[in-house]
Amino acid sequence: MDEQFILRVPPSVAERIDRLLSENPSSEDKLDLSFSEDGKTGSFVIGDEHFPASLLNLPCIVESYKTYDDNVLIKSADIGQMIMVREEGDPAPDVVEYRHGLTPPMRDARRRRFQREPDLNPELVRRVEKDLQNIMSGGTAENIDILS
C-alpha cells in the first residue's frame, strides 16, 4: 500500500527540491519534515533553511494514479490532505480546511460546487415526521381538511 501526500511549496523551494532530486545529493543536502504535537503545524527543512509548514484538509478527495507502461492507469491512493510549506514571513492559515482545491477550476469549491444545507424549522420537521408516521401506520395527518 502506497502512502502519498501533496506537498505544496513556494517556487524557490520547488526549484531547490527539483535540483536536489535530479542531481546526486551530497551529505550536506538534507530534506526533512517534522510536525509538532498538535499534528497540524510543523517545520520543513531543506539544506540549512527552515520553513513553516501546515497540514490542511482539501475541500474534496483527490485520486492519485500511477502507470507502469504509459498506457494503463492504476488508482493508487485517495488524498484528502495537503502539506503547505510557506515562506518565513507568511502568516499561518487560521483554518484546518484549505478553501481552494489544487487546480484553478476548484477555486472556492465548497461555496460554489457543494449544496448548502437548507434552513429548516425544527418544529416543522418534527410535525411532518409525525404526520408521515401516522400515514404509514394507516392513520391520517393532523390539522388537515379533506375536501371531496
From TrEMBL:
Organism's domain of life?
Eukaryota
Per UniProt, the keywords (alphabetical) are: Nucleus, Transcription, Transcription regulation
| Pfam short name (any one) | TAFII55_N
GO biological process terms, alphabetically, are: RNA polymerase II preinitiation complex assembly
The answer, when asked if Transcription is one of the entry's keywords, is: yes
One cellular component term (GO) for this entry is: transcription factor TFIID complex
Return the PANTHER family for the record.
TATA-BOX BINDING PROTEIN ASSOCIATED FACTOR 7, TRANSCRIPTION INITIATION FACTOR TFIID 55 KD SUBUNIT-RELATED
The entry assigns this protein to a family as follows: Belongs to the TAF7 family.
Q: What is this protein called?
A: TAFII55 protein conserved region domain-containing protein
The organism is Solanum pinnatisectum (tansyleaf nightshade)
Q: Write the lineage as a comma-separated list.
A: Eukaryota, Viridiplantae, Streptophyta, Embryophyta, Tracheophyta
